[in-house]
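Supplementary notes for students who missed Thursday's class. We covered one full example, reproduced here. Read the sequence, then the structure, then the short commentary at the end.
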Amino acid sequence: MKNIRTDASVELVAPQPPLPGVLRAPRPRQGLAAMAVVVGAVAPMGAAHAVDWPSGFSKCADEGGSCKVGTTARQVSFGVKDKWVIKTLSGTVPCTSATFGGADPNPGIAEKCAVGPAASPAPAPSPAPSPAPAPSPAPAPAPAPAGHSGGYAGTVTGGGSATPVTVTTAAQMQAAINAYSGSGGLVIRYAGTFDFGTITDTCAQWQKPAGAIVEIKNKSNVTIEGVNGSAANFGLAIKAAASNIIIRNMTIGLLPGKIDAIGIEGQGGGVPSNIWIDHNTLFSSTKDCAGAGDLEFDGLIDSKAGAHHITYSYNYIHDHQKVGLIGSSDSDASDRYITFHHNVYSNVVSRLPLQRAGYTHLYNNLYSNVLTSGANIRMGGYSLIEGNYFENAQNPVTSRDSSPIGYWELRNNNVKSPADFATYGIKWVASGSSPSRDATDWTTTANFPVGIPYAYVVHDPACVKQKLAGVAGAGKNLATLSCN
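Structure (token representation):
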């Protein structure tokens, strides 16, 4: 258990910036559009105890005590003073940092635990649950505050204002990370280049020795950003207890030796958290190579072994077989919270994502030319899928290849009903696995059972189709979508 100060000086920490990725009560906003609201159900600052837990929650223990949540899983918060983390738990829950993945929202201050209202029971995995009634369209949420990832990663500052270190090779980048103490802030600017045109036979890549992988392991507060025009032929890995990490504006492609472009993975008992993968261009090839099957390239954005609170935003992901998995196998299933927003997927085969357990929020993404399957929600996982644009996509929303299946809530996408399938080129090919379910009726199978703890804007899918490609990916100066 952490050392807790009890003198009055603890109040001095309150004005400091929020810890990266920790949920924080939004300040009141003025002048927002009439349809804008704040989501996440956070109590107003003036309410009693409102700064110590989300609105609607009730205190159940002080740090070091225990919460009796009961047999039905409910959301439990851990924190005080506008800063907390939330997990979905059941039974008797120790109110400790360890219970919440090692989180410590307010160092030096005793935290509190609070339990949220009981949610509707989760549907049984087999047989498939009856479709839940389609929810009423939600009003457009308020925009995320500046510096916020717009997703479950929360506010991720990375290396902050640390003096940038410029590198041009993977070895130089790794050396800079190795020399960094692990806290205080590190900003790496990658200015290296790679001519992908020199790879004339993409099928030869998988037979090469594994390429270089730059690791951020057990270190926090790091930004890796490519300069415009840079390109890399090496991978990036975020491992163990790494947190508050930003990777942006990198172009990574055609990696040798079956390695991930960006891999996030728990290791040695530590799990990465509060990771923001933003405005990158990632690709390989969809060519089928003799002897390789679909394994000539590994994942572009994989997260494994408990990695949690991750946001993938404004990435351009194209020409790849298996794009991104959550959980390396069916035994790698845990409570994790991951957001995918404003990403462009073009000419890809599958795993958009492959989700094992946990909770994902997919909003305002463009799925174009999906060759086998899109979002594959498995192992009892839940996904809120809203404001996306699907076109020329096979099995865009499905649950297959695992038992139990997973569930989705469909909200305000361009496809409204099966009558739209022909218009947008949506096709279905049944899975040979059992149990399985495809969204062939395009209905919600279970309402998303947890609140969205961050503010965000859902743009009209037609604008996503028209404008998103112009701002997603590297070299776009971190531009964001405007639909005015």
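Commentary. DSSP finds three helices and 31 strands in the chain. Residues 1-50, 119-140 have pLDDT under 50 and may be disordered. If anything here is unclear, bring it to office hours.
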